Amino acid sequence: MRFFYLILVLYTGPVESLQDIGWFWHASDFHYDFSYWSDQLSCNNEVTSPGIYGDYWCDSPWLLIKDSIESMKEIRPDVDFLLWTGDNVAHISDDYLSVNISMGILQNITDELQRNFPDVPTYATLGNHDYFPNNQFPAENSEIYDRVADMWTNWINDATEITRFRNGAYYSVKSKHGLRILGLNTNIYYTSDKVTANMTDPAGQFEWLDQQLTAAKNNNEKVLITAHIPPGMHTPDTILWYYPHFNDKFIEIINKHVDNDVITAMYYGHDHSDGFKIFYKKDGTTAFPIFVAPSVTPWRFKAGTQTGPPHNPGVRLISYDRATGQPINILMYYINLPDSNANNRTDWKLEYNFTQAYSVDDVTAPSLHKLRLRMEEDKSLIDMYYKFKDVSVSNPPSCNDDCKTSILCGFWNHKPDDLNTCTEKGKTTDDPTDYAVHLHANLAIVVCLLLFVQHLLL
Ligand SMILES: *[C@@H]1O[C@H](CO)[C@@H](O)[C@H](O)[C@H]1NC(C)=O
Ligand SMILES: *[C@@H]1O[C@H](CO)[C@@H](O)[C@H](O)[C@H]1NC(C)=O
Ligand SMILES: *[C@@H]1O[C@H](CO)[C@@H](O)[C@H](O)[C@H]1NC(C)=O
Ligand SMILES: *[C@@H]1O[C@H](CO)[C@@H](O)[C@H](O)[C@H]1NC(C)=O
Ligand SMILES: *[C@@H]1O[C@H](CO)[C@@H](O)[C@H](O)[C@H]1NC(C)=O
Ligand SMILES: [Zn+2]
Ligand SMILES: [Zn+2]
Asked: Is 359 in the pocket of ligand 5 (CB under 6 A)?
């Protein structure tokens, strides 16, 4: 009997076994092309034999969207919630779109999610392509904000927050397990939004975010932030999606609260590539991670002689600690698009298990910080990161030394000047007096790139 008690004590010993683990899905950038089987309006090259699940040159046919949502349900139906970070309308000229077409697409994807996850709330946010005209999000109520508020009423499930959504397409909800979810409309900060360009706080969202973070601290809540367009620098292409004054303001608000340990993580889309970043506290210790999910659409960018890489469709499953809100792991699922078309069926497979692939304890900021330092020493880890960026497409582009420096610097530098200073240090051993000259030359390059990239309109 005494022996039995001893075993019992040993068995219930490890603290991990008491951790209450929850799961949620994150899907982004479906970009449905309703003309895939007719005019192929989104396709960047002529596609003579379109595959039933899609083509690297085009946005998604409906079957791909339906199949990805059904696969999420098959892999794990019992999740606490879903994150859906926008861009549901294809890369199609406004000439072929309208408010009703965009709203019809949003309604159909909303219905598909509700059909597959009837008892699970989806915390959804709009992407720049979900507005009509494209990108032109206003700072106050509009027909689109109203219609989407009606569509997502059951998910937001709070009269005050639905009213807030009608005003600026952002909201705050508390999940079943007590995590505060802030769904932001970051499209109003995008350099392609001409309506908000000269404003200081469109839709009052900055002031509200500041208040929400203060309230969360006072109420002892943990916060998850989700939105379409991420702040900071997209690397290795060195793209700042926000107008610089909005990026500065966003970071200023985050920094004001960064030492309070309120934000657990941020989840975005828009990049159409898989990546993460780390936010640090004032004393240089880690604060929280930023995760960017790749797209479901395989669509390949092309403008003039410039082409983007192909990528495979992917969705991700995230585990987190329900008590602390801290993220634990990311399981990335994907299909190889040509194989799926050739086999006439999809086989959604685990692309990677984050903690296993990178040998880290979890995906919290301290673990990602250690990984970042290991990447500085072991560049093969960046090659793996780069392969995942395009969702393990066959024959991916390679990442040279400048590309690797840019990625390493992008993990922790969220402003153009800071990123530039970091990449300069990373690749030059020049006389320091030359430094300022290099810096200015590079700043000019960054500005040109930014102007060019505005036209990519992811
Ligand atoms: C757009 O949709 C609304 C609501 O469904 C409908 O009342 C209206 O007639 C539609 N407009 C056009 C131009 O089709
Ligand atoms: C949405 O689904 C309905 C019903 O299946 C269909 O008639 C309609 O064309 C779809 N809308 C779009 C924009 O594809
Ligand atoms: C914003 O300011 C610029 C420069 O002053 C001006 O050209 C532009 O028309 C303004 N935009 C709006 C929407 O007011
Ligand atoms: C592919 O699958 C669909 C539906 O399962 C079926 O209708 C079609 O005939 C199949 N095509 C080929 C080439 O096997
Ligand atoms: C992911 O990897 C961890 C080890 O880091 C392991 O404990 C876990 O079972 C793996 N999960 C899946 C679904 O492969
Ligand atoms: Zn997109
Ligand atoms: Zn986008």
From this structure: no
**For ligand 5, atom 7, which residue shows the shortest CA distance?**
356
For residue 4, being part of any structural domain is answered with: no
Alpha carbon distances (Å) from 170 to 183, 359, 449: 5, 36, 30
Distance 456 CA to ligand 4 centre (A): 35
Using DSSP bridges, classify how beta strands 81-84 and 21-27 pair: parallel, antiparallel or unpaired: parallel
Q: Which ligand is nearest to the CA of 98?
A: 1
Would you say residue 382 lies in a domain?
Answer: yes
Q: Which residues contact 34 (CB under 8 A, 6 or more apart)?
A: 62, 90, 101, 105
Give kind and range of the element (H or E) at residue 328: strand 327-334
Average pLDDT over residues 36-63: 97
CA nearest to 295, candidates 7, 42, 8, 103: 42
Can you give the CATH number for the domain in which 315 is found?
Answer: 3.60.21.10
Q: How far is the CA of 118 from the centre of ligand 4 (A)?
A: 29
Q: Which ligand is nearest to the CA of 75?
A: 5
Ligand 6 (ion): residues with CB under 5 Å are 29, 87, 458
Predicted TM-score (pTM) of this structure: 0.91
The closest-lying atom of ligand 2 relative to the alpha carbon of residue 107 is 1
Contact criterion met (CB below 8 Å) for 196 and 202: yes
Whole-number pLDDT of residue 16: 54
Whether residue 296 lies inside any domain: the answer is yes
How far does residue 225's CA lie from ligand 5's centre (Å)? 25
Q: State the angle between helix axes of 401-410 and 416-427 in degrees (0 to 180), rounded to the nearest 10.
A: 140
CA 100 to ligand 1 centroid distance, Å: 6
Separation CA 70–CA 82 (nearest Å): 13
Domain count for the chain, please give it: 1
Distance 353 CA to ligand 5 centre (A): 6
Residue 67 near residue 108 (C-beta atoms within 8 A): no
pLDDT digits over 421-443, tens only? 999 998 754 433 333 334 444 44
Query: Which domain does 408 fall in, by range?
Result: 19-456
Nearest ligand 3 atom, CA 194: 13
pLDDT at 18: 79
Rounded to the nearest 5°, which phi and psi values hold at 303? -150, 115
Pocket of ligand 5 contains residue 360 by CB under 6 Å? no
Q: Where are the beta strands (DSSP E) in 5-162?
A: 21-27, 81-84, 122-124
Residue 141 is assigned to a structural domain of this protein:
yes
Q: Does residue 236 have a cis peptide bond before it, meaning omega lies within 30 degrees of 0?
A: yes
